[in-house]
Write a structure and sequence with these properties.
The chain is an alpha/beta fold. The protein has five helices and five strands; from the N terminus they run βαβαβαβαβα. It has a five-stranded parallel β-sheet with strand order 2-1-3-4-5, with helices on both faces.
Length: about 190
Amino acid sequence: MNAVLLCGSPRKNGNTELLLTRCKSKFESASIKTTLVHCADTIVKPCLACGACRKRADMTCVITDDDFAKVFRLICDADIVVCGTPVYFGSATPNLMTILDRVGYVARSNGGLLSRKIGGPLVVARRAGQNFTYAQLMYWYMINDMIVPGSTYWNIAFGREAGEVENDEEGIATIDRFSDNLVWLAGKLF
C-alpha cells in the first residue's frame, strides 16, 4: 500500500507539515509506504483548460516544463491521498490548488484515475476560514469519486507560529483519529 501526503504550505516545518507528519507516522507504523510532497519544493503551473489531456493516449498533460508529471504519478500510484493546507485569506494555498486542479482535470479526463482512492484534507487556521477551506478541499475529493472517512470532528486545527498547532489538543486528537480511520479503511479495502 502507498500513501501520498501533499503539504500545501509554502513554509517548511510549519503547522501543516506537523499534522501531515503525524499522519505519516501512523501510516508507516501500519507498513504503508508514505511520501510527503512539499508544495514549497515543487513548481507546478496552472491548468490551461486546453482539454488536450482528454485526447492524449498517454494520459498526460501538455505542460511538461514543471514538476506536475512527477506529482501526478505519485498520486495515481497511491491508495491514500491526504492534502494539508494553512488557511490563506479564507482558502487553500494557491500552490496546493494548482496541483489539485491539474491532477483532477487530467484524472477525470482519463476515466477517473482517482476513483475509489481514499484520503481527505487537513486544514490549519490561525483563527478563522477553516470551514470554507475544508469544504473547498472536500469538493475536490468528492468530484474525483474518492472515499473520505470521518473523524471525531472536522480535520482542522489552530495555530499561527510553527509548532503552535500542538497546543490544540482537540485538533491533534481529530487528526490522529482521522489517520487511524484511514489505516483501518485501507486495511478493509486494499
